[in-house]
Amino acid sequence: MDIIIGLLIIAIGAFCQSSCYVPINKIKNWSWESYWVVQGVFAWLVLPLLGALLAVPAGHSLCELFTGANSFNIWMTILFGVLWGVGGLTFGLSMRYLGVALGQSIALGTCAGLGTIMGPVLLNIFFPEQNALDALTFSVILGVVVTLVGIAIIGVAGSMKAASLSEEEKKAAVKDFNFPKGLAIALLAGFMSGCFNVGLAFGSDINFGDLTPDMYKTLPATFLVTLGGFVTNAAYCFFQNSKNHTWDDYRKADVWGNNLVFCALAGALWYSQFFGLSLGKGFLTESPTLMTLSFCILMALNVVFSNVWGIILKEWKGCSQKTIAVLVLGIIVLIISSFLPQLI
């Protein structure tokens, strides 16, 4: 029962993340770079900090935790957060050229596979005595492979969509649709986004041990990763503000109330995926396979729900029944990948 509860919590977090772009559509009279950095304040600073505080028992402090932890692990966690930030930036571009459904599918699928594998591999390089590679069991590898198969099927559906629609229909569904360009960007985004789970791997011991409940143990590391990601995103957004002369966005007092609310909501929905991941893992401790695969499962479910939103937003409108059937098959394979390792 605990495993079912854990997977359901992760699924709820995935649904929230896949919905985070909905409130962004309500933001008025701000350029992309302006609303992106403001929602990032909530998604990558405020809420992760509040989450990290949940891991701090009475009589202790977050400062005490970070100063007492291995400094190498602290900086590696932040460094991979900075690298993940690059993935976050290109992630947005992948959806610009491919749409929410296809963009998230390819980027998150790549992220799921590489993020799961890279963590144990890099930990083994720096800390061979931990035997991190032991986590990559047959069940884990199978789960990753099945996830990637599901992503590949959805990618086929995307190419079928690109081939079957006229330029006018493509633009109607996704204004800047460009499959080759979007595919390249999505793959880069997925590779860099996988660094998030690597950061979590390096920060896995940054907690108060038995004093921190299992469901909160990854929240301090999550804060450090998102802190690094915020640095990357803020630097790029402020550069774009200067390049595009959009600093005046922040002076538009008439839209601040509306935009702040929807930026905060978007940030909260985005952070829900990793808050849910931490809570969910607290119920998966009896299954080392699912603990290792939890990040992959989260990304796979993100893809499932992003395609649901893609259908709702009519990004697949005009496609043939065969294309929709391939898309649905890919979604089913991804759902199976979340449970298959536990059945072996």
What does this structure look like?
By secondary structure, the chain is an all-alpha fold. 77% of the residues lie in helices and 0% in strands. The radius of gyration is 20 Å and the shape is globular.
Briefly characterize the structure.
This protein has 344 residues and is mainly alpha-helical. It contains 13 helices and no strands. It has helices spanning 2-18, 21-24, 32-53, 62-68, 71-126, 138-164, 167-173, 179-193, 195-202, 219-244, 253-281, 288-312, 321-343.
Q: Helicity level, as a percent range?
A: over 70%
Average pLDDT, to the nearest integer?
Answer: 85
Sheet/helix structural class? mainly alpha
Secondary-structure element order, as H and E?
HHHHHHHHHHHHH
β-sheet strand percentage: under 5%
Number of helices: 13
Spatial gap, N to C terminus: 17 Å
Q: Which overall shape is indicated by the principal axes computed on the Cα atoms?
A: globular
DSSP, total strands: 0
* C-alpha Rg (nearest Å): 20 Å
Note the main sheet.
none
Low-confidence stretches: none
Write the layout of secondary structure elements.
Elements: H1 2-18, H2 21-24, H3 32-53, H4 62-68, H5 71-126, H6 138-164, H7 167-173, H8 179-193, H9 195-202, H10 219-244, H11 253-281, H12 288-312, H13 321-343
